[in-house]
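In this supplementary section we document a worked example of the pipeline. Step one takes a protein sequence of length 412 as its only input; no multiple sequence alignment statistics are reported here. Step two produces a three-dimensional model, which step three serialises into structure tokens for compact storage. The input and output of this example are shown verbatim.
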Amino acid sequence: MLMHVHGEMLQTAVLENGRLVEFFMEKSKASSLVGNVYKGRVVNVLPGMQAAFVDIGLTKNAFLYIDELLHPHLEKQPKHKPPIQELIRPGQEMMVQVIKEPLGGKGARVTTHFTLPGRWIVYMPNADYVGVSRKINAESERGRLRSIGEKLRQQEEGIILRTASEGESELSLSADISHARELWQFIAARNEDAPAPAELHREAGLMRRAVRDTLTMDMDEIWIDDSSRFEEASELLQEMTPKLKERLKCYKQRHGQSLFDFFRVTEQVERAFERRISLMIGGHLIWEETEALTVIDVNTGKFTGTSDLEDTVFRTNMEAADEIARLLRVRDVGGIIIIDFIDMVQEQHREQVMQRMTEKARIDQTKCAILGWTKLGLLELTRKKARENAVLQLSERCPSCGSAGKGNAMIK
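The serialised model returned by step three reads:
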């Protein structure tokens, strides 16, 4: 993991064998709202949409769906959703948490299904269940973690054991749960006295989130090119994962090269955000993003193969699947994604391409669901959209025509 600091901007890159697989950026004065908890006031209830607008103190009112008002445990929800006006009314004060940033002309989306992430667990004060990350495959370990979760949770609490909890001791998990529980009690106490609208809790900044959510024991090195942020990261590692502290290193310019230049991140980011992305085998992708969805077209380009057309198409599509899965993480794409793979004659080839996408989706930290092939032969998937993706942060709107063009946000 590489952390590049330039003024107010913090950019984080994760490399696997020198290849960029994740990229995040955030300005300290414009930190993410996702995870923040507010005391809000219901402004308007919309029975026809089963939704409401809530004033949480931002420029635009937040949007609350009825699903986010029902019990977080699906088995405890009513079989038939009641009218939303039976649950809330205009003028009512309520505590909510942001689950999606304000995007475009839309306000933030909020929920009453509160979650407080820790290093090993996600604490849900009212969910009343224990879950284990699907990325932990061993049934014996899943059973061990589930038993610990049931033992440690109290009353209506819910706990999700994160992927990072695999192999951790009950003592470590207990400390993480206790810390989250105390934080929730502090938030609830603030809610009692605060006037609406008010911010009750602010989610951690990118540095803490990176250490908490991204760092794993299989990371060999963690580099930071700023001495003050290096000290901050050192303290966070000491607090959350002391075993990784010795892998933290402070980067000093070598031969006049910045951290990102030395590790070839700058050029990889520039290539990753192009509209036309070349594949190693000779084909290429055409990548189009709109507010509604992302469309990716796969082309063979100059690659003609060595045997037959079906083999050429299949090999191109398999490489494209790998590259698309990587770029979805790098570009942090969210929402509906449609992939137009090159037409394949053999059904087993279609199944293998979809299986490859499914396998890659499992290693994505952001929830990604492969929905399958449409009647038109397009592969449809969705990826959780919570924050403004890096494409929008790396681009600026043309004042003349309104189109998005690359700006200078990428730090050299």
